[in-house]
């Protein structure tokens, strides 16, 4: 039926459909301009990417976390982190230098 109707149409009627088809093709390839205020698509996370090296503080936390949880088993994760931060602030400079050296090794 459709093919028969198409064959019976004259050129001006067919031109209307051809124009609509062209507009549809243009819209399919349309990419809106990226403006400063426009939202950007979030990059997909690479699951195979290497993790960042740990900072000196996090290396210290990895070593001390067991001691804090053994000493204060009732502490929540947040309280344990706060205790680790306080310990880091009280650590002598010589020990901090050791952890900073480990950090530098991890970064290379």
What can you see in these coordinates?
This protein has 108 residues and is mainly α. The chain has a domain at 56-107: DNA Binding (I), subunit A. It contains five helices and no strands. The chain starts with a helix and ends with a helix. The relative contact order is 0.09.
How would you sum up this structure in a few lines?
By secondary structure, the chain is mainly alpha-helical. Helices cover 65% and strands 0% of the residues. It has helices at residues 2-8, 11-28, 56-71, 77-90, 93-107.
Write the layout of secondary structure elements.
Layout: H1 2-8, H2 11-28, H3 56-71, H4 77-90, H5 93-107
Query: Helix tally?
Result: 5
- What is the CATH superfamily label of the domain at 56-107? High mobility group box domain
- β-strand percent reads under 5%
What is the alpha-carbon Rg in Å? 33 Å
Main sheet, how many strands, which sense, barrel?
none
CATH class of the domain at 56-107: Mainly Alpha
Question: H/E element string?
Answer: HHHHH
CATH fold-level name of the domain at 56-107: DNA Binding (I), subunit A
Key features?
108 residues; mainly alpha; rod-shaped
């Amino acid at each position: 039926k459709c093919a028969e109707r198409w064959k019976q149409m004259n050129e001006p009627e067919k031109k209307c459909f051809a124009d609509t088809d062209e507009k549809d093709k243009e819209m399919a390839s349309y990419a809106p301009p990226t403006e400063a205020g426009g939202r950007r698509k979030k990059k997909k996370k690479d699951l195979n990417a290497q993790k960042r090296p740990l900072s000196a503080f996090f290396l210290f936390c990895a070593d001390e976390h067991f001691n804090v949880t053994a000493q204060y088993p009732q502490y929540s994760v947040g309280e344990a982190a706060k205790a680790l931060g306080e310990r880091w602030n009280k650590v002598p400079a010589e020990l901090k230098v050791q952890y900073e050296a480990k950090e530098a090794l991890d970064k290379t």
